[in-house]
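Teaching assistant here, posting this on the class forum so everyone can see the example we discussed in section. The complex has two components, and the goal was to see what a joint structure prediction looks like when all of them are supplied at once.
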Amino acid sequence: MFLAGGTNLVDLMKLDVMTPDVLVDVRRLISAQIEDLPDGGLRIGAGMTNSELAADRRIRSRYPVLSQAILAGASGQLRNVATVGGNLLQRTRCVYFYDTSTPCNKREPGTGCSALDGCNKDHAILGASRYCVATHPSDMAVAMTALDAIVRIQGPGGQREIPLTELYRLPGEEPQRDTTLEHAELITAIDLPPSRFSAHSKYRKVRERASYAFALVSVAAALRLRDGVVADARIALGGVAHRPWRAERAEDALRGRPAVEESFRAAASAELAEAVPLRDNAYKVPLAGNVMTRTLLDLAEAR
Amino acid sequence: MTTIIERRAIGESADRRDGPQKVTGTAAYAYEHRFTNPLYLFPVQSEVARGRVVRIDASAAEALPGVIAVLTHENAPRLADASDRELAILQASDVAFRGQYVAAAIAETLEIAREAASLVRVSYDEEPHDSQLRADRDDLYAPAVVNPGYQTDTEEGDFDRAFSSAAVKLDATYTTPMEHNNPMEPHTTVAVWEAGDLTLYESTQGPHTVAGVLAQVFGLDRDRVRIIAPYVGGGFGSKVLHANTILAVMAAQLVQGRLVKFALTRQQMFSGVGYRTPTIQRIRLGATRDGRLTATSHDVIEQTAKTKEFAEQAAVPTRTMYATQSRRTTHRLAALDVPVPSWMRAPGEAPGMFALESAMDEMAINCGLDPIEFRIRNEPAFDGATGLPYSSRNLVACLREGARRFGWAGRDARPRTSQQGRWLIGSGVAASTFPAIRLPGSMARISYAGDGRYIVEIGATDIGTGTWTSLTQIAADALATGMRDIDLRIGDTKLPEASVAGGSSGVTSWGSAIFEAARVFRDRYGNRPSEGDQAQAATPENPEANRYAMYAFGACFAQARVDADTGEVRIPRMTGVFAAGKIINPKTARSQIIGGMTMGLGMALHEESLVDGRFGHVLNHDFATYHIPANADAGQFDIAWIDEEDTHVNPMGSKGIGEIGIVGSSAAIANAVYHATGIRVRDLPITPAKLVR
């Protein structure tokens, strides 16, 4: 197993949640730089720390949603150590996944999902299965999902590139697999496509305390307006699903609509129409709707 | 009291004597003393909540190089006294709660011990368990007394009649969740058992208490047990004595002559070192149209463990807070298959006053009165709990001074009337109280060291509150000398006996002993003692306690900002005004109060131990998922004291301040959230989930 910053993996090893036989420290194998791409995009080395990425001037000016998302996560100390690749691959914070004395299909396939009928206030409302209702914890990945990021992967058979949305998977019957990575594949970089309207973007994270908490719900959004009408939108949600949730239904519902609260609320409702709340997390449906609406409205009013 | 002492050091904002050691990391906490060749302990905890261990296979663990032994109920030392079932671990195969110690690995390194513990295979005969508190149980019972010895139920006047005929009424149920103390320093024992002598470096609030219990449990002479605890990183009630210490001593007994180190992980601190019981509290208030209480009742349902009873006294503050023509208070318990609940900062007052002070806010609204005015109208002439007059009671002064400092005047009482951007803004107030407790059993010894210097010895402990400094101040005034001439010695059972650092009783109990010893010393040796002159005295009984009811009071104000879209709550500022007698050291006292009010903020907004009834243990057993306030959650604190000096309580004129800060803080915030949003949250914590619409 690959080790970079170790801010999640080492914790999981201490708790016997993950017990790799071999650790390969990849910090010197992968780039820790940002490169400008010929098409105007950026290539982010997967070994870069979260702090360095959030502070980069190009990120702050051209993709502010990404910088805001990173700074909304963890603590300064953790961001100084955690890498971009590791952030993408961090495991769920489901309390049952972390507790080896309880059943968990993600940790031990076939044992059952304890959260399905247990304490699930933090769990998924979209795209879950009866095998797993966990959420992905990353803030950074939510912003990258909205930004159409491309993941560059090095494997034994060579290099490949996939959209970030295809890196993650829904739990289905195999919740032990967070991603579509194959054995021995390593994320080397993340490409951000050239910025068309991502400079007009925003990240909003809702959490139970003012800092150092995972999102109950978060929204990454970018908006392109023309004459008071939504020309295009990119929206992703965090804290609601097994993967950062690209809100394509909401995006579709918005294109060509006036940039007013009613449109945003209707778009949010379209996205959340298929939400399936559990015992303790029904609040996430109105919360996600409100946060999407407010974030888009803020972007519309800021232009 | 009779002695009038000039107070020169008392009342000074003296710097902490241990400040330089603390900030340079040289103050040795229990785990950090220099030890040679220690062993390490790591426990195996039960993965069932009720049943029996049928088989333990420790062969893989024992085969690991570096493992000294694996303790189980089959080979553990037999205890001389196993009557306290919380402490009687590894004596039998039965399991009483999930997380109970069923084995422990002793090894040359912590890593080996931890690995070995993970290799121990335990088979259980599991029985159905019951680990969740509900109000609709048919097996609730009334304990004989509630902590520490209060009457379980009280009845004054005819509550039912008064309530049914009251012009204005409230009948509401409030709940508080299970909460865990979580001091910064984990519970730690470093134990060595050598030639019949047992020595512990222990993170404890009561070194002598621990020595006494260990002597009894292990069948040792009390003077062969020594506890060393110069610095303790917080306790909040959870560090008196729990099974973790017993386990470490058992290991030390087994390996004779070698030190055994055992510090709990954060996760392990969520089972077996106490917690605050969840509470379900029904409050009924009846009043006249002009807002005078005619009927008050407070009925509390809580949990305890089947193995050992702890009854939190949540309704007790209702017996003293307000004047009322009739009053009923009751406590009922459900005995569950859970770890034993215990003291957590202001047991009783913290959850009880959340309910009462929320209810007082609701009732003020029902009466159409300002909540401060409503409280003032119901200010009692005497203590309803005892019928005695108060030695001092300055709640009204606290409310008025707090209102002035906070800027309460002109507040629009209607909820949801103030907004800045998407922030709904509100303000709330609540009263606080905590009894002024004096524990017996402390002894102070004063010796003259020559050159004007005095050695003052008492086996008290500083759990982070500033005892090193405050007792030095008290000794200086008691001996009419300067602080620099006092060589204070605490934190060791080689020193004279001292009561536990709990119940906000330390300064009263220990300080009174020091005052008494100083009086005896001066009576015997005058003002020109010779080197080696020595006197000691115990904390005297206080005859005033039979004549007066003694409590500290306070008023807590909070401003709340609630995001209209998300229900996120932020508390930008709080004001706390306290009437707690003479403040020995305003600087360390301010820190304690800020800490208490912040803990109340955590109680209001964050803290909740989640138990899944199918498993029976706390799931969110780490700081990623059990939230306590982060720095960004704690806004501005304005702390002030009412000038009060109550020599009925003790010769210093002080009351305790360790706990009153948390009392009232959660209700003030809940009341402010109501004022901001119009949503009354009666179930703590107040999370976005409960406010988002």
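For the discussion questions: Residues 284-302 of chain A form the longest helix (19 residues). Chain A has two domains: 2-192, 202-302. Think about how each of these relates to the inputs above.
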